[in-house]
Amino acid sequence: MAHALSIFSRRTKTLSGAGILTIAFAIYKARRYIQTAGNQVINQQESTNTKGKQPKVSLQKTGTSSQFLDNMKQLLPICIPGFFSKESGLLVALTTIIIVRTSLDIWFSGFNGKVVKAIVSRNRKEFFTKIIFEFGLMMWPMSIVNNSLKLTISALSLSFRERLTKYAHNQYLDGISFSKVSNLDSRLQNADQHLTQDIDKFSDHLAHLYSDITKPVVDIFLFAYKLGEAIGNESPIYIIAYFVLSGVLLRTFSPPFGRYAAIEQKLEDDFRLGHAHIISHTESVVFDGGERQKEVVNNSFQKIVNHVRKVYTLRFLNGIFDSVLVKYCATITAYYLLARPVFDARYATKFMGALQDDPVKLVEDYSRNSSYLINLSQAVGRLILTGRDLTRFAGYTSRVSELFDVLGETQ
Questions:
Q1: Where are the domains of the chain?
Q2: CB-based contacts of 213: which residues, under 8 Å, 6+ apart?
């Protein structure tokens, strides 16, 4: 019997290994296809720019880390002028709120386990005590903290925009800089686009980027500690290692969406420029019936439609593999780590599996620990997927940095 089980175990491991290799190879091939399709989008856009003899966006430098870091070194001192500035105070307040929010999440995980225990044990008094008195009291600080987080992020975004806009206005409307940018320098076809929408989007993404990075980092440290205490110190390491490996795969084979964002903004600029030309040449448009201008703006708009449609398709394909790696395969790993202390006494702790004969306690521990693991997994997943948002943010950073470069050279 033992020999048969040994054979079965070896065959199962062999089949599992083959299955993992097959899935990995399929993901690799699909990722290569997505990356190739993404490069075709860039090549087609570069070809269009060359034929139309229009100024090109520096697409090759937009997504590179060195160029992005140089741009941030230029823009961050404008956004945060000093340690005692209002923006620094908002960052400290935001960090404090994030830590409090994570502490409340830890409390809620334990509270959820106690509620489940009351339900399984059919303890009506304990159940109503928990949900009416304890949760009724704690829902107020949780609501205040959640909305304070949103308010602080919005205030930080607005403050960044205020700093950048006033700084740009001081350069743009200084002497004859406005005339040089508008008439002599062809690098900024739509300065108004850079001064309004691009600065606004950059400021909003920068404020959210800090929160999107800080919150997962705090969650990882605190929930990893609680989870290691509950189901073994190596369990958080396994789940984090899995997500890091997934992140490396996603980073390696994901299309360069930062470049696509820069291309889309360039196409939007061309479309706006076409309509601005119609407004400034009303008489000539009326004279020739508007057919020529209609063709120009329709062609500009069609380029936007074609580009966005291709990007949506790439995001769809990319999202499928993001979900498989970051969500579903991680769920399988989580089930194994949670169940291991129950099925193997070597991994049992006082917070999971120690009292094997008490199913009520087992349900409470499983509910609490699963909440810890879910929060940890979500934190690591958000931190990894922030890299994808970072590429989009790099596109806006490039455009705002280009604005300040041109304004600085025309002084």
A1: 65-409
A2: 383, 386
Give me 380's structure tokens: 């690591």
* pLDDT tens digit sequence for 37-87: 455 544 554 444 444 444 444 444 444 567 888 888 889 999 999 888 999
Residue 361, CB half-sphere, CA atoms under 13 Å: how many?
Answer: 11
- CA nearest to 257, candidates 204, 313, 341: 313
The count of other CB atoms within 10 Å of the CB of residue 364 is: 23
Give 362's contacts (C-beta < 8 A, 6+ positions apart): 342, 353, 355, 356
Q: Is residue 121 predicted with pLDDT exceeding 80?
A: yes
pLDDT in tens, 313-371: 888 988 888 778 777 887 788 888 888 888 877 887 777 876 666 788 888 888 888 88
Per the CB < 8 A criterion, the answer to whether 218 and 351 are in contact is no
Q: The domain at 65-409 falls in which architecture? A: Up-down Bundle (1.20)
> What separation in angstroms does the CA of 290 have from each of 7, 114, 173, 267, 286?
80, 72, 34, 22, 6
